[in-house]
Sequence to fold (882 residues):
Amino acid sequence: MTIRNTLRDHGQRYRPRMACLKKTEKVLLEMQDPKTGVRSQPQRLVITTIPHAITGEDIIAWLADRFQVDTQEARTFGSMLVALGYIYPLQDHKRLVIKPDVSLYRFQTPYFWPTQQWPVEDTDYAIYLAKRNIRKKGILELHEQEHYNRLHKWMNHKWDFIVMQAKEQYRAAKERKKPDRVVFDCQERAYWVVHRPPPGTVSAMDYGLDRLTDPNSDEAKTPDFYERIMIFTQQSIMRPRVKSSVSIGALVKYCGTYNNHDPFLFKCLPSNPWLTDDVTYWNLNMPCVEIPTKMRVERWTFSFAELLSDPRGRDDFRLFLKKEFSGENLAFWEGCEDLKWGEAATIKEKAEHIYKTFLARGAPRWINIDGKTMEVTVKGLKHPHRYVLDPAQTHIYMLMKKDSYGRYQKSPVFKDTVKKAICPEEHNFSVAQLEQNAKKRRPSLSPIILRQMEKEQRAKMAANVDITQVMSKLSKQGKEAPPPPKK
Amino acid sequence: MCDQTFVAATFGPCESCGKASPLMNIYIKTEAINFCSFCVELMTCQVLQGGESVASLKRESDNLKKKLEEERGKLNDIELHQVAEKSEVLGAFAIKTRRLLKGHGNKVLCMDWCKDKRRLVSSSQDGKVIVWDAFTLNKEHGVTLPCTWVMACAYAPSGCAVACGGLDNKCSVFPLSLDKNENLNAKKKSVAMHTNYVSGCTFTSSDMQILTSSGDGTCALWDVESGQLLQSFHGHTADVLSLDLAPSETGNTFVSGGSDMKANIWDMRSGQNIQSFETHESDINCVKYYPSGDAFASASDDATCRFFDLRADREVAIYQKDSIIFGASSVDFSLSGRLLFAGYNDYTINVWDVLKGTRVSVLFGHENRVSRLRVSPDGTALCSASWDNTLRIWS
Fold:
């Protein structure tokens, strides 16, 4: 049984989220190099001088030079060093940031670095506060007072020990030389600002939740653990893979194809709604708009998946298939998608419906799949599960992709859509107009309302179909006046 | 356009027990066998045949791993940045904060966009989940969960529900309603039940299924209506921290990244782990598919983001810099896949050129670490959620 250390432990063993600390230390060592490190100067107090103080602007300049970055980034990096407690400010010690001016900082002694192997304990904090209280009553700040009172209550059983330790440390400190004492006091104070931050400040020590499993622990490696690895590795070895030039070439080509469609790389027409507060772009690209934009239609030519995933594109394709009398393929594919992603309770029902409509002999919308796939599918349908129609669906998808898609792009339906597609003019707002736009931001229809509207629309269409079916039935029974016979 | 690689999972009778179920195609010493997942487990546990000791098994598995690396290396004929030399260099970027969403009282841990490109849902450490219209800065819905640290939230594809989960070990789905007075907690559906915290969740192509990842080391696929577990995915040896669904039309795969430094690709139908990538040096905090579905990127505590090609089966790029030593917590691609946005624990967002491997921009503004980054569905904006209680929209 492993007993988890519930105290905040800044060692590297358990929480790799602080993997940055080791790297920070390397940088720190470089910074402290007497020849190539940050320039240091002595700090003058009233009568004493304390060596090795560094200015904020020197730190930033050194970092910018070392990492070849600009000053803003160097400043962020420097602030992180201060926030972690490796460098502490001498003036304004509660704000752990780097100021790009002559404010002074000093390197923290390694004793107080966050990576030390011992956790930051409340006992030590209590001793520290008690010591400061002994030195001068009333010096503790409000939040420190609260901490002190709380610790006094919780550690009452140890309080004699704490007070004794505090007195001893205070006495030992008095025996030091004044400069050393001042330096040590600063260091200790900085250490506690990092680990017990004042309220309302951001603490860099805050890393969130602990991981459940300690990745560094040596778990018992049982035989089946290795067996599993071997099976998996063997499977990976036998897996077919592609030459890097082919697959990387495809990735690069994808970037190139979509480059002009990426709003971060290319202007979007008429304008990016987030930049100009004008939602024309979104209105023109609604899922089921009458007339699509030229860019949208261009995307349909990139791949079949792109065409199907856009509802407007799918509608256009459906129209084309209807004209070719092969609409059942798309309908079957949509039915399979519905089955795959639908509710578990309706699987059986949906599978039966699809079988009756598309696969059974003499079905009204019979689809053309090869014998083997049909056999596998029909056998699977005896015990329908979510993926029972997968082989058939894949077959039909490839059929549509390799055959119908190509013909669609050459068809009059598509060419007509391309001709009608709009290419909006780029907006050119003046500053005053932009301000106006910002004031006129309006909320859009909630997706809940849109879905309700869609449902009503579909119900209406279904009702229309019913009426025409009724009419045609009536005409078959001769109850309607037959049209004059054509000769 | 590149073809989608179809994972050929076969269905049929298992060669060992005879039951019809999704089969795992595995190889025992280059001999292919088709067992159902239960029989594979049974087989792995019946080891120690022929007097093999644990040490010899370890040696054997290490040898196999070396052989795998060799196989991968055989087809490695070119590097990404070499192919990318022909691509044009990117110009300067003027990405600025366009909206600042204030309203959470505590660290914002996760966010997700709605398909209508302007709404988003965000969750925070104090249990509050808020649905915003990011364009107008209106808060449209709000729910308070009874647990803290809501680390996962997702918007349903229809836009009519949100799913969220965290320290309560559950993932719940809340159908959204227009009635302002209605308490969304009343219609809540508890869907996923894990044995530890839920770190990530996402809907599949419909509102009816969710995929979750958890600190207990597993991922799972659930049916929303009944709360039934449809498939579970075992293979990580530590917390699973993130997952992402493949964007392709016919692919049924997803990628997950965990504390064991591995990124695994799974087949949703059979529950099998198809591919695994183990090149990171620390926890993988976030994984995201490339828009074409043939590659993915991962962000890790070792301060690097890496790019893996699925068809070539290897890592093809590392995005790192001397001056970046803080872990990356989240990544996302721009619409074309040319840009990779990564949020780091030093409060910045770095923008990388995916093909050339260089950094093109740094975005400053957050006052605490960036916990989650997502590009909007039409690629027009980037949203970042941070521990400084705010969300920023960049464009």
Q: What stands out?
A: DSSP finds 21 helices and four strands in chain A. Confidence is low (pLDDT under 50) at residues 1-14 of chain A.
